[in-house]
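Page 37, top half.
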Amino acid sequence: MNATTRTLIAAALVMGIASGPAVAAHAAAAPAPSAVSAAAGRPVFSTPPDAAALERAIAGLGAQHEHATAALVRVGGTSGEWRGGSGVADVRTGRPAITDGRFRAGSVTKTFTSAVVLQLAAEGRLRLDGTVQEYLPGLLPGSFKPVTVRQLLNYTSGIRPADHPGDTFEAAYAHRFDVEDPRAMIANAVAKGPEFDPGTKQHYLNIDYTILGVLIEKVTGTSYEKAVTARILKPLGLRDTSLPSRTQTRIPGAHNRGYQAVPLPDGGRKLVDVSVWGSSWEWAAGDLISTTADLERFTKALFGGRLVPKAQLEEMFTVPAVTDFETGRPAELTAGMKRFVLPGGKEAWGKTGGRHGYNTVIGGTRDLSRTLVYSVNSTDAKGRNMNKVAEAIVYAAFAK
């Protein structure tokens, strides 16, 4: 793959988000074309995934690797399948990575939250043009102009972020077991006043999805966790996917441990185990725990129109005609996903997620000719730059 192709893919995907055991992988022949891909015409991808490139992308992971201790990958679609895993489950013991292990999926949670909101809109239980002031009276101060549900979904609400203990890993680690109430976070955020007029810019922040979590609870009359479980997890049979309570700190079931690399004064580093961590800061914006198999099933069901009716699903594939608040460039985010452009002008859609110790991606082409799900146990999962292992996986998965 040439440098231009690599740059295009990397720029599109980044959302500013001693060797281990040998790679374990397998490839499968292309399945029969689905109704979705047939309806879309000529598929974006018609050849199987590049197995050799994918194996290279995740080779050599472990305690001594600069960027990741493990990785789990599933490439699928009508053009063929590939499954692989590499690295270690625990750097102390060197046990091989658990290929069906669970992990924190971070902001991939937002895609689940968005899907539930869009389901409720399809059922007539809320309107996307309805306002926060209408559905959650008193939540926003009078200084705010009307903020619609759609503007929360696509990050154009103009609501500022809530305060956190600090921007450094050390600050986050010191407060990793804090239990935060969603409404308290919202109150903290809105007390600062609006950042910009609703619908005029896009700013990717968790606060919009925290409010959507509260909205789901108000409309459904149940907890956010129960609503997502009843509407998505159970119907799709996602048995290894869960939404932890605000006081839960451990990943249930078998999982590969996550680590953060911390620099030492002598120029070396130590790996801090970050597997045990609270979820109340992220909640409806980022607390999902899942597996690559479950997330692949979710992605195919979502893109295939089996979760959200067609009219509402278009919100997930519609980028608002505004600019990004931080960069000034055209917006790229939709209701719970992001658009990125492959070489040759083809589109792909997906969502990244980052929690300390874990980077995740779901997505693919809309015709489902190529899908990608990965979990990378990144040693700097919240860093500004895309993890190098994750980057290599993306290059390999979308190579033609």
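Page 37, bottom half:
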Amino acid sequence: MDFKIKILPLGPLEVNTLIVSLTDNYVFIVDPAVGSKSPDEYEIVRFLAANNLIPVAVVITHGHFDHVFGLPVLHRAYPSMHIAIHEADREYIGANSAIAQEKIIVNFGLKSLLPSVSNLPDADSLLEDGKTLKDCIAVDNEDVAKALEKWKVIHTPGHTRGSICLYNASDKLLISGDTVFYHSYGRTDLYGGDDFQMEKSLEKISREVSGDTCVYPGHNTCAFPFSGNF
């Protein structure tokens, strides 16, 4: 692989679906943003197949509909692939996903999309603050496990109760979901959002993340250097 992180801007709200290299041809996917009835429904699967990549897991930074559209397509294509999300956002996926998703979708006037995020595949791995992806996702391949160990979970509630960032200190990379944007941060006025929690999460990120880190946000296609200014 000739990339650390590949950005695929996809879906109706142009989410940055990320393909993150691990070792050999193994990768994990962050926030699959396209699903059934989308024009680019199979874009993620096509990219993986064209580059002979093997996804070991899909990691969800938070459960909003635009970040989980692709779960059914990926689950069908790679049934043994792990699905990982924080426990506090688990309500957005699984058999009863429509209940929580409807509370978000109505704010965007996109209720017609609700069937696409109903009865979603459930998580088989839960993300925990301070643990690495190796701790949270069980894999048999020792080299893959070592690569997953480089990525630490930072629980960052505020945008949703279960929002997380992924931090790779050795490679100076931060996957921020909808928590951190360029000189900005995620909205807190939707279901599960909280201003106070967001403030605490941003303080936490500023403490834990090195100033020369490259940030990959959930929207807007360009990664940017972390400055600690929000």
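Margin note: The longest strand covers residues 15-21.
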